[in-house]
Structure formats: structure tokens, C-alpha cells
């Protein structure tokens, strides 16, 4: 698992978010992702990106604004014992199924306009002690499908979306260095996750 990298000035520049990118819960299209059969090597190698609402280079008006962050850590969790820390344990307790955990950095600290807007939405939910509505949807390719099970697949990106097909894809905030709320700069959503 990749560790949280720091910049040359010694601090993280953007909001750090985490959560369940995908799980073996049945989604709204009736499909189930086999976590074991999902290749997450792009995420593990540091090549995984976050986009807003599945926007990509094929969409009309596509631009660099569509990519809002970068996956800095990814891990498959098959059982509670696989959890490396309290946050992963909290997500396990919510999902209770194998899942793909991610941690990502938004580009809000560099002034990326869409990442700034996304961070503001997330920050507002946290500041008001509400469930974060910006959650995740994994993107990639299906290599083998058995009935409604995606038996083998390749994960390439994660979309941050307010309408995830997999309702078990929860999200949280690990760190928010750009929060306008001084008390929240180092706070996490652990209490929100636990509730």
C-alpha cells in the first residue's frame, strides 16, 4: 500500500478523501463485482485518477477540469482481519462484504476549479455532520462476466458521483488542509462514519 506522500514544502496540498470504491454488493443495474477478480494495479502503482460524474475525454466539452484528483492508496479488503486501520474497519462494519478501499488527494489545493467545487461540497456535508453525498463509482473494463457477476475486470479510474450505482460505496475525509473552518483542518469524518 502506498503511503501518504508529502510535497516538497512538507504538507499535503489538497483534501484527502477515502472510502469504498467498489464492493461485492449488488448494484442498481443488478451486477456484482468480484473484488478478487478485479485488477487494481493502476491504483496501486499511482496511475489511478478521480473524475467528476464519469466525465472523460469522449464527452462533449471534455477538458482537464474533468479530472479532479489522484488515487494515492488502494487495497482489497476481503474480511475484517484485512483492515489495516480504524477507518478501514469502519468501512467494513458499514459494508460487511469484500470491497476495494481507496485514499485519494483532490486537486483543490492547487486551485483546480472543479476540485475546489467538489471539496466545497464534501466540506459542507462534514461541517454540518451529514452523510457525504459525493461517493464513488469504479470505472474500467469487464474481461469476463458470469451471469450477473463481473468475474474478471480491470479498474482504471474512479468517478466521484452523487448517484453511485453501488449504494455501499461510502466516502469520508481524512484530512482537509484548505478548510476555511480552522477547527476542521485536522479533523476526520471518523465520527460521521461511526454514526
Characterize the structure shown.
The longest helix is centred in the middle third of the chain and has 15 residues, at 113-127. Strands 1, 2, 3, 4, 5, 6, 7, 8 and 9 form a nine-stranded mixed β-sheet that branches. The radius of gyration is 16 Å and the shape is globular. The model is unreliable at 1-10 (pLDDT under 50). Strand 7 and strand 8 (149-161) form a beta hairpin. It has 195 residues and is of the alpha/beta class. It has helices spanning 41-44, 86-95, 113-127, 190-194; strands at residues 16-23, 32-33, 38-39, 49-52, 67-77, 99-106, 135-146, 149-161, 171-175.
Radius of gyration over all CA atoms, rounded: 16 Å
Number of helices: 4
Dominant shape: globular
Strand tally, please? 9
Low confidence ranges: 1-10
Output mean pLDDT: 89
The percentage of residues in β strands lies in 25-35%
- Major sheet description: 9 strands, mixed
The chain-level structural class is: alpha/beta
Query: N-to-C SSE series?
Result: EEEHEEHEHEEEH
Whole-Å distance between the termini? 27 Å
Q: Percent helix among the residues?
A: 10-25%
Can you summarize this structure?
With 195 residues, the protein is an alpha/beta fold. The chain is built from four helices and nine strands; from the N terminus they run βββαββαβαβββα.
Amino acid at each position: 500500500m502506498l503511503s501518504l506522500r508529502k510535497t516538497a514544502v512538507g504538507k499535503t496540498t489538497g483534501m484527502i478523501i477515502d472510502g469504498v470504491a467498489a464492493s461485492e454488493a449488488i448494484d442498481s443495474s443488478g451486477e456484482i463485482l468480484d473484488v478478487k477478480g478485479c485488477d487494481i494495479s493502476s491504483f496501486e502503482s499511482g496511475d489511478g485518477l478521480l473524475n467528476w460524474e464519469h466525465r472523460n475525454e469522449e464527452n462533449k466539452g471534455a477538458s482537464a477540469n474533468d479530472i479532479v484528483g489522484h488515487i494515492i492508496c488502494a487495497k482489497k479488503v476481503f474480511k475484517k482481519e484485512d483492515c489495516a486501520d480504524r477507518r478501514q474497519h469502519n468501512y467494513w462494519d458499514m459494508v460487511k462484504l469484500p470491497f476495494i478501499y481507496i485514499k485519494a488527494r483532490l486537486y483543490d489545493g492547487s486551485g483546480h476549479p472543479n476540485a475546489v467545487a467538489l471539496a466545497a461540497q464534501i466540506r459542507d456535508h462534514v461541517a454540518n455532520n451529514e452523510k457525504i453525498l459525493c461517493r464513488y463509482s469504479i470505472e474500467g473494463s469487464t474481461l469476463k462476466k458470469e451471469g450477473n457477476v463481473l468475474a474478471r475486470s480491470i479498474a482504471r479510474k474512479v468517478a466521484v458521483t452523487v448517484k453511485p450505482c453501488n449504494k455501499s460505496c461510502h466516502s469520508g475525509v481524512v484530512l482537509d488542509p484548505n478548510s476555511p473552518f480552522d477547527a476542521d483542518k485536522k479533523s476526520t469524518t471518523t465520527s460521521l462514519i461511526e454514526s
